[in-house]
Design brief:
single chain, 259 residues, alpha/beta, Rossmann fold, 7-stranded mixed sheet, 7 strands, 11% strand
């Protein structure tokens, strides 16, 4: 397999080779877009939390981790009344915590772009109900890495995703990541420039999209993030998942409802 990639690299160049590897790694060309969405019972939790995004939300144990499990443990330890919601169900094995079983619901699909998330969002909300809090993971990350959308298109998609969430719940709180980078030897100059631009852009989006009832909050996931937190070129290992979960929890403590 390495020989194949090297021979392709001679004709595609370094960037082309990395894009090919990334596409294979995340399953960008998978048939996931045609997945049937099955309705789930509506949650009655005080804090309905939807983790929304791509493979960094979905995870793929044992190859790489999602932040959801580490965050779930923090929320359980904090005594919060919460429920993860989403049309996807994580079927990996997780250890119980405080005699509770991990909540596997989420809205992450490996390799999906902002346009694909936008296209599916209404159906997902119809299937599982409306969240109180959305954790919007790595917005535009796959758009940048697979090069299938312009920066302006990605920004427009992110804004429309937020619009839909706010129409469904005018009081929704949306926490948007200033995305963590991939491994240093994977990040080309263009990838790095586009990641940096998106990190800045989400701050503008948050400012413009916040309403009198719906907060859009950015969260810095890149400061302090390094190669030791990655299982491969772009996905979290256990330490990386905990890094991301800790940062989410710091924000969530100030916005979740308590009885």
């Amino acid at each position: 397999m390495l020989t194949t990639f090297n021979s392709m690299g001679s004709s595609l160049g370094l960037v082309g080779t990395r894009l090919l590897i990334f596409a294979l790694l995340l399953g960008i060309m998978s048939a996931g877009c045609n997945d049937e969405v099955q309705p789930k019972p509506a949650s009655i939790s005080l804090n309905k939390i939807m983790a929304l995004g791509a493979s960094r939300v979905e995870g793929a144990r044992p190859e790489f981790e999602s932040f959801r499990y580490e965050l779930w443990k923090l929320l359980v330890d904090g005594g919060w009344d919460f429920d993860y919601i989403g049309s996807q169900t994580d079927e990996a094995s997780y250890q119980d915590h405080r005699n509770l079983t991990f909540d596997p619901d989420h809205e992450g699909r490996g390799g999906w772009t902002s346009g694909e998330i936008l296209e599916g969002l209404i159906e997902w909300l119809d299937a599982v109900g409306t969240p109180d809090v959305v954790l919007f993971s790595s917005p535009g990350g796959n758009d940048i890495l697979n090069g299938l959308a312009s920066f302006d298109e990605t920004v427009a998609n992110i804004n429309q995703i937020i619009d839909i969430l706010q129409v469904r719940n005018p009081d929704v709180i949306i926490v948007v990541e200033e995305l963590a980078p991939g491994k240093s030897n994977f990040m080309t100059a263009k990838f790095t420039a586009d990641f940096n631009a998106m990190q800045r852009e989400v701050m503008t989006i948050a400012s413009q999209q916040t309403t009198s009832t719906s907060q859009v909050i950015t969260i810095d996931m890149f400061t302090g993030f390094d190669d030791s937190l990655l299982a491969d070129d772009v996905h979290y290992n256990e330490a990386g998942a905990k890094f991301i979960a800790d940062r989410y929890y710091t924000v969530l403590q100030g916005i979740l409802k308590s009885e």
